[in-house]
Amino acid sequence: MSHLLSRPLVELHGVVKRYRLGGAAIIALAGIDLRIGAGEFVAVWGPSGSGKSTLCNMIGLLDAPTSGSVSFRGQDAAKLSDNARSDLRNQGIGFVFQGFNLVPVLSALENVMLPLQIGGASALVARDAARLRLEQVGLGAQLTQRPSSLSGGQQQRVAIARALIGAPALVVADEPTANLDTANALLIIELMRRISREEGTTFVFSTHDQRLLERVDRQVMMRDGCAVEDRLHAATVATPLAAGGY
Ligand SMILES: Nc1ncnc2c1ncn2[C@@H]1O[C@H](COP(=O)(O)OP(=O)(O)OP(=O)(O)O)[C@@H](O)[C@H]1O
């Protein structure tokens, strides 16, 4: 789907993020303009320190820019109260992290149920929805297992199921494959892309692994806080590795 034709879900205008470290100013983002449409599958690529995580935090409304604006579903995040911004984020955006961030004492099912229960859903409703999501990511047989008994790839699939449990329009994944081997990294990307295609969910993930870029529709290349390249790309589909993988 073209980012020029599709309705923008996220819009960044002139986004600058500056940090102070001692007396020095660090420019993490140097003025980013970006429009991400509904249903796009986007990789943010760049070397260490180029600003990928900072950009993900902006897109996910986890952090505010020093200057410039970030809008989600047409709403300028800076013009919302803290509560309204949290509501917008909680209802519209799911997150996946490099370290999976699962609760160790909870089962896979309980981990995925958690966001719905925090949002006020009954255990019955949350359990049914979580089971469906875990089946969708190929973990229907691992519902009662704790994270420590799952592989890294399986833990990240639980985290993806958890990110999707509220049916968000956008999933932001900061280096979701950094702790995985290549085979599992590719499976995770294929899984996210399949869900994006099936449900129209927008995915934005960061990576420093260039090999993953051929699996995405759009590549945003970061260098020194700037988006130096933003291009559409005909993604390679279904590899033998991914077929039947989960
Ligand atoms: N909280 C912070 N305080 C000070 N400087 C920061 C902070 N967060 C990020 N930076 C700096 O901003 C720049 C961009 O960091 P960022 O983490 O966004 O890059 P990255 O591309 O995600 O790097 P990596 O691949 O290593 O995670 C770096 O120079 C980093 O040191």
Which terms would index this structure?
246 residues, Rossmann fold, six-stranded mixed beta sheet, four-stranded antiparallel beta sheet, disordered C terminus
Number of strands: 10
Query: What is Rg?
Result: 18 Å
Structural class: alpha/beta
The CATH topology of the domain at 38-61 and 93-232, please? Answer: Rossmann fold
Mean pLDDT over the full residue set: 91
Separation, N- and C-terminal Cα atoms: 26 Å
Number of helices: 6
Pfam families: ABC_tran
Family: Belongs to the ABC transporter superfamily.
Keywords: ATP-binding, Cell membrane, Membrane, Nucleotide-binding, Transport
Domain ABC transporter: 10-245
Provide a descriptive summary of the structure in words.
- With 246 residues, the chain is α/β, with parallel strands linked by helices.
- It has a domain at 38-61 and 93-232: 3-Layer(aba) Sandwich (Rossmann fold).
- It is 30% helix and 28% strand.
- It has 6 helices and 10 strands; from the N terminus they run βββαββαβαααβαβββ.
- The chain has helices at 52-59, 82-92, 108-118, 123-136, 152-164, 182-199; strands at 8-21, 24-37, 41-45, 67-72, 75-76, 93-97, 170-174, 202-207, 218-223, 226-232.
- It has a 6-stranded mixed sheet with strand order 6-7-8-3-9-10, sandwiched between helices. Strands 2-1-4-5 form a 4-stranded antiparallel sheet, covered by helices on one side.
- A hairpin with a 2-residue loop joins strand 1 and strand 2 (24-37).
- Helix 4 (123-136) crosses helix 5 (152-164).
- It is globular, with a radius of gyration of 18 Å.
- The relative contact order is 0.19.
- Mean pLDDT is 91; it is low at 238-246.
- Bound molecules: adenosine-5'-triphosphate.
- GO terms for molecular function: ATP binding.
